[in-house]
Amino acid sequence: MHKLPTIDFTNKRNLKPGSSSWLATSIEATRALEEYGCFIAEYDNVPLDLNGAVFQALQDLFRLPIETKVQNKSTKPLYGYVGQIPFIPLYESLGFDYSNTLDGVQSFTDIMWPNGNEAFSATLLAYNRLVAELEEMVTRMVFESYGVEKKLDAHRKMVTYLCRGMKYRGPEKNETNMGFVAHTDKDFITVLHQNGVDGLEVKARDGQWFAVELLPASYIVMSGDAAMAWSNDRLHSPYHRVTMNGNETRYSIAQFSFLEGIIETPEELVDEEHPLQFKPFDHLKYLDFYSREENRTLESAIRTYCGV
After folding, report:
1. What is the pLDDT of residue 78?
2. What is the 3-state composition of the chain as percent helix, strand, coil, each rounded to the nearest 5?
3. In this predicted structure, what is the pLDDT of residue 217?
4. pLDDT tens for residues 120-153?
5. Among 145, 199, 274, 275, who pairs with 30 as Cys (CB 3.0-4.6 Å)?
C-alpha cells in the first residue's frame, strides 16, 4: 500500500542553504516529487493561533450569502468562485490572486465585506506569506538538485500566488461522497492545508489510489503540470481527488504558484537520455486552454497543449 513520504521542515535554523541538512532535505523532497508528485511537509512556521484563525476565517467566508460569494470573479480562467455544480454538490470554493500581498488580500476582502473585515485580511495575509516561504524553499531545493539554481531568480520574478479556500460538506443520505473529481493541478507548486478532516486521495504512478492522512501541523506540497513540463517530465503531476466519508465538513486552503510569462525547460535538463518533452508555453494561456469544456477530460492537458 502506498504512503506519502513525510519530510521535516520544522527546524528552519538547520535548513540553511548549503548545509548538510538542507542538501539531504533537498534530495528527499525532489525524489518525492519525482515518485509521487507530492509529499507531506511537517512545517511549524505557522503559529497555532494563526492556524486556528485561518480556519475560522474560512468558516466566516463560506457563511456569506451566495449572491456575495459569486461576486468573486477574475479575468484569469479558473481563478474565481466555484460552486453550485450538480455533479459535485459537496464542493464550494473561492480564490484570489496575489495572495501574499496586501493589495491582493484587501481587494478580495473588499468584495466579500464592503464594510471591511480587517481581521480576515490580516489573518490571510500573515498565513499566505508564511506558506509562500515553504513553497519558495521547496522550489529552491528542486532548482539546486537539478543544477539550475542560476535560473531561480528569473523564475521567482515570474511567480504569483493564487489562494483558494475550499469547503466540502458531508454527504447526505443517498448523495454522492465525491468531494471533487480526479484532476491534476495546473500550477507549478501547490501547498495545501486542511482543518483536520481527511478526504484527499492521490493516484500513484502504478494507478493505485490511496488516502492521505494529515496531522494538524502538516501540509501537502504538490507539483503541478507546469512543474512537470519545466522539469522535462522529471517531476510528476499526480492525479488527486477528494472523497468525503462521515458528516464532518472539510475546510482546506491551498496556495498555488503560477508564472506570469513563458515557461521553458532548462537546457541542462535536456540530453540524450532525456530528450525534450515540452515546448515553451505561456502559463496563463495554458489555463485558458484547460478552462474550455472540451479540454477538461484530456488524459494530459499539458501534453496536448505543448508536448513535443
Report:
1. 84
2. 35, 25, 40
3. 86
4. 999 999 999 999 999 999 999 999 999 999 999 9
5. 145
Give every strand in the sheet of 209-211, ordered side by side.
178-183, 240-243, 200-203, 209-211
Helix (H) or strand (E) holding 64: none
* Residue written as grid cell 504569483: 160
Q: How many domains does the chain have?
A: 1
Query: Around Cβ 133, how many Cβ atoms within 10 Å?
Result: 17
Q: What is the DSSP string of 196-250?
A: S---EEEE-TTS-EEE----TTEEEEEE-HHHHHHTTT-S----EEEE--SSPPE
> Would you say residue 243 lies in a domain?
yes
Whether 1 is covered by a domain: the verdict is no
More reliable by pLDDT, 77 or 63: 63
C-beta of residue 245 within 8 angstroms of C-beta of residue 60: no
7 touches 29 (CB < 8 A): yes
Where helices occur in the chain by DSSP H, the ranges are 20-35, 48-62, 66-69, 102-112, 118-145, 152-158, 225-230, 283-291, 301-306
- Report if residue 179 sits inside a domain: yes
Contact between residue 208 and residue 264 where contact means Cβ atoms under 8 Å apart: no
What's the angle, vertex CA 220, arms to CA 99 and CA 78, rounded to 5?
Answer: 45
219 contact partners, CB below 8 Å, separation of at least 6: 40, 41, 43, 131, 134, 191, 192, 193
Exposure of 260 in the CB half-sphere (CA atoms within 13 A): 10
pLDDT digits (tens, 9 = 90+) for 144-178: 999 999 999 999 999 999 999 999 999 998 899 99
What pLDDT was estimated at residue 246? 87
**How would residue 15 be classed by pLDDT, with cut points 50, 70 and 90?**
confident
Q: How many CB atoms lie within 10 A of CB 93?
A: 20
Question: What is the C-alpha to C-alpha distance for residues 147 and 204, in angstroms, rounded to an integer?
Answer: 27
Q: Which CATH number do you get for residue 151?
A: 2.60.120.330
In this prediction, residues 290-296 reach a mean pLDDT of: 94
Establish if 266 belongs to a structural domain: yes
